[in-house]
Known about the structure:
mainly alpha; Growth Hormone, Chain: A; disordered N terminus
Amino acid sequence: MVATVEQGRPLGHGAARLLTAALFALQPLATDMYLPTLPSIATAFSASVATVQWTLSVFIGAFAFAQLVAGPLSDRFGRYPVIVSGVFIYFTGTLVCALAPTIGVLVTGRLLQAIGACAGVVSVRAVVRDLYEPADGARLLASAGTIMGLAPLLGPILGSQLLIVLGWRAPFAVLAAFSLMLAVLLALRLKETNRYRNRDALAPRVLAAAWRDVLRTPAFYAYTLANTMSYAGLFAFLAGSSFVLIGLFEMSTAAYGFSFAAAVSGYIVGTLICRRLTPRFGLARSLEAGAALQAGAGVVMIALALAGIAHPAAILVPQFFFVVAHGIVQPVSQAGAVALFPRTAGTAAALMGFIIQICAAGVGLLIGATWNGTALPMVLTIGAGGIGSLTIALVLVRRHGQVG
């Protein structure tokens, strides 16, 4: 029998933090561990850059649409079954990727990975809302982000080393083993936190009404759009960095793994800063500070590119500060967007994630379609994300972001 909050002791702070970090890590691990392999996958399947980018964009697109189901499912049946089932689906998709004989099968495996990852991410955001008030939730998300930040930090390093030694399938094999162990652990130890399960949550009329209520709330779209622009800039780097740094700047695969890790290590720094900012300044002002740093980093990167400075440091150093800012913007935005929906937190988290991931999928396709042998398409997209997040923070979040 599944343990529930009513039947047993609720998750403690430490357990909630580790659970959140582990489930949040599934998405960056699925992306960052295989990023160094993209050029090798293109060679192995004789595929173009645009075709290989579908393995990234399909993941993000499927992640986006699956959330629209995963969120209401967790409101209807509880967080436990959605999280556990999701991680098992993630394991299955990762195994398909490791054994894929064609690029089409690889894309299918990535789709399954995305469905499983999104079920965990959406539901654990709702778990945080189940257990904490908005400001405390933001601090927990930032604390979990500090731990989760090891995934994008170590993922590309591990992926590049596995690629060098065992080939492009090895990162998927390792990730399959990790996700299977996590699924078994969650099945045995996770407790239910949803005290307001809604038996009608999946009814079309009820679901449409819940979406309408969420989308009509100014605070929701203010925080969601800020997070969307921040993630769009980050995702442009995820989608384009291997082709720019390895293909354009002729960086070795091993050096790329370490360089990517150095750039995204800023996320850990940002989450540590966020944990200090939110108790003192609140959600809205903390987000504004992070967005200002993000915009500055993006503008510097564009300026260096337009000045003709073709060196990895001209991208990696500004990107480090962009990711520091993302470590502030993301936890604050996640907490702020669902703060006003204690009974439909899963639906609100799903809609937020859907909007963010649809935009990211478009960015991935844009990077592939505009690839012209230079860093400029990637750089301009990163800069636009930073400027956009600051604009939204100053206009929408400042006006509507006082949620607790």
